[in-house]
Amino acid sequence: MPKQVDHEQRRREIAAALCRLASERGLEGVSLGEVAAEAGVSKGLVQHYFRNKDLMLSYATGYLRERVEQRIAARTADAPAGPRAALRAALLALLPLDPDGRTESLVANAFLFRALKDPAMAERFREGHALLRDAVAGWVEAAYPTGHANPAQEADLLLAVVSGLADAVLLGHHTSEAAVAILDRQLDRLDRAPRET
Amino acid sequence: MPKQVDHEQRRREIAAALCRLASERGLEGVSLGEVAAEAGVSKGLVQHYFRNKDLMLSYATGYLRERVEQRIAARTADAPAGPRAALRAALLALLPLDPDGRTESLVANAFLFRALKDPAMAERFREGHALLRDAVAGWVEAAYPTGHANPAQEADLLLAVVSGLADAVLLGHHTSEAAVAILDRQLDRLDRAPRET
């Protein structure tokens, strides 16, 4: 189905253009016309693929999740063997340490406001977060098998740390290196946590 | 100087109106006219106090910092005696656990995009963050005197945790209670960290 693939590629290009704009100034002021200009296509074409901005944003949340999943998969595949390295690589993939990661962190922030007014979008974010939490909990359990009664709680904590560090790096409170050092301190600490009952 | 005080009160009311609007939809789409309407004053009066939106935003960042400092001061004053309770109260004051805290967390998110384009604003945020980090480090040092070679690093980590948890609560990934439990787990853990060299 070569035509089908083409359409999907177009949708992705439009979603990528939306994400670039949103990473610069949030989502509120972004119009279909501006997205079309950024994507280098006509406004009519954007409207052909997305009848309105809500549908475009809905598609873009899926696109964003996919980008983050691909980044995690690539980083964990490149990491040294073993669950500790995989856990660390996955968490590092969530920090804005390169231009793509920076764009994704900014877009995630831009979507926050929209999600607060859009229950369906908020639900998709919750789903995405739950999947990520389960994956991180799996790595925690494999990496620190004797240390943790509740890998899910540890995953919640680690995800809060990387989320907070991501904003701190964006705002210039920490350099990338400092943020990685802070995360590494927390990972080192997992070895020392006794099993809880 | 009763007149002076009045003017300052007016500026605060306008900043509060800006913050309410920003907490609903970010900062980008907010005009001076809308802020005036939200504050229940004329656009001319807003322009009398703030010649343009940038000056209003600049004032609002100071207002926001003051609000957060007052909240921390109030929570730590109400907390049980001792530095551990003060540390916990200060960190809880940074979570969106009540309507005011929720508004402040949202406004801080809204300012993030602006700060990325406005070096002077970014610098004010960095200053505010550095003061907060020093205060938290002071409480860490007092609360866990034998556990931590580097209270500043511990403060960085705790501030990242509360920043990440704040967004998670806003997005509905965690209830307020779950977020507090996650923070408490990390605080409990500070007792177990050996002094590093």
Automatic annotation (TrEMBL), chains A, B:
Signal peptide: none
Record-annotated HTH tetR-type domain positions: 8-68
One GO MF term attached to the UniProt entry: transcription cis-regulatory region binding
Alphabetic keyword roster: DNA-binding, Repressor, Transcription, Transcription regulation
PROSITE patterns: HTH_TETR_2
Any matching Pfam family: TetR_N
DNA-binding region, residues: 31-50
InterPro entries: BetI_C, Homeodomain-like_sf, HTH-type_TetR-like_transc_reg, HTH_TetR, Tet_transcr_reg_TetR-rel_C_sf
This protein's record includes keyword Repressor: yes
Matching SUPFAM superfamilies: Homeodomain-like, Tetracyclin repressor-like, C-terminal domain
PANTHER family assigned: HTH-TYPE TRANSCRIPTIONAL REGULATOR BETI, HTH-TYPE TRANSCRIPTIONAL REGULATOR RUTR
Protein name (Swiss-Prot/TrEMBL): HTH tetR-type domain-containing protein
